[in-house]
Amino acid sequence: MTVLRNSLARGVCLLMAGTLLGGCGAQVAERSSGEVPERFPVTLTNCERERTYERPPEKVVTNDIGITEIMFALGLEDRMAGYFLSDGQRSGVRSSPWSESFEKVPHLGEEIDMEGVRAANADMVFAGWNYGFGETARFTPERLSGEGIDAYVLSESCRTGSGDERGIMPPLEALYTDIRNLGELFGVRERAERLVSEYETTVERARKDTDGQRPTVFLYDSGRSEPVTSGNGGAADQIIEKAGGRNVFHDLDDSWTTVSWETVLRADPDAILINDYGDKTSREKIEFLRNHPTFSKIEAVRENRFLTLPYAALVEGPRNPSAVRRTAEFLDTVPEDDQR
Fold this sequence. Notes:
Blueprint: H1 6-15, E1 42-46, E2 49-53, E3 60-63, H2 65-73, E4 80-84, H3 90-94, H4 99-104, E5 107-109, H5 114-119, E6 124-129, E7 132-133, H6 141-146, E8 150-153, H7 171-186, H8 189-206, E9 216-220, E10 228-230, H9 235-242, E11 246-247, E12 256-258, H10 261-267, E13 271-276, H11 282-291, H12 299-302, E14 306-310, H13 311-314, H14 320-331
Parallel strand pairs: 3-4, 3-6, 4-5, 6-7, 6-8, 9-11, 9-13, 13-14
Antiparallel strand pairs: 1-2, 10-12
Helix pairs in contact: 7-8, 8-14, 9-14
Protein name: Iron transporter
Organism: Actinopolyspora mortivallis
InterPro entries: ABC_Transporter_SBP, ABC_transptr_periplasmic_BD
C-alpha cells in the first residue's frame, strides 16, 4: 500500500469532515503515565452484559476493517498494538480515509488467534462474533479473560440468544453505542459525542421520505451456489432503509446469512448492492450475476442497476453514514414505476 502524501491526506480530511471526523491527527486524553486514572474501574454494557475494565487499555488488538476504523475515528491509534485484516479487505484500506493510520499501526496478520494476540502483548481485543470471535476457533472473550486479557465485542455482532443469530439492536444504534462506550473507556467522551452527532446529521440529511413505495434492494456479498446477503441485524439493512429502500431480506433475523437463488428471484429486486471485498472483484461479481442462467433475466440486471460499496461501508463502522448518502443518491435513479 502507498502512503498518501501529507497534503493529499489533509485534503481528504477536509473533504470528508462532515461524516468522517477523526482521521486527521486527533489528540487522545489520558496518555499512559503508569497511574490508573481516578475514574477507573469503568463498567460498560456490551452485548447486554456488564464488563468491567480496571485500567485504560494501552495495547489494543483489533480484527476486521470496520472495527479498526472505529478506533481510528476516535483517534486511538496510539492505544493499539496492531490489527488483523484479511487480504480480501486490502482494497478497503486503500480507499479508507484512515489509510495513513493503517500504515502507522502494525498489521499483525490475516486471521486473529491467541498466538498473535499474545505476541502483540495485548491487554484488550476488540472483535466480534464471526468477526474474529468464534467457538470453533476457540477464540472467545471468555478465553481471553482466562488469560488476563480484556475484550470488547462489536455490538452489531451481539448474539440474540437463539443459536448463532446476531443482532440485538438497530445497526446504526450499535455503531453509536460502541463509539460512546469506547469514548468512555478511553477518556475521549467529547470526541465520541461529536462523532455521533455528525453521523446522525449525515443520516438524517440523506434520509428519504416515501409514500409507501420503496425500491427493493438485494445485497450480494458472495457465493455462487448460494448467495450470502444481509438480514435485519446487519449494517447494510439499515443503510438501505435509511436511504429510502427496502432490503428484500429484511425479515431475516440475522446480520449476514446464506439464502437461495430461488428466494432472490422471487423477490425480484429493483436494484442490486454489491459488497466489494473478498477474492472476487466487484466487476467479477457483477459479471457473474449478468451471466447467471436465471438471475440475469431480472430487470435490475438488464437495466444495470448496480451500486458497489466497500465492505467497510457495509459492516458496522464509521463509513456507514456516508454509505447511507451514497445509497440514497443511487436509489434516486430507480424509476418510480419500477418501485414497489
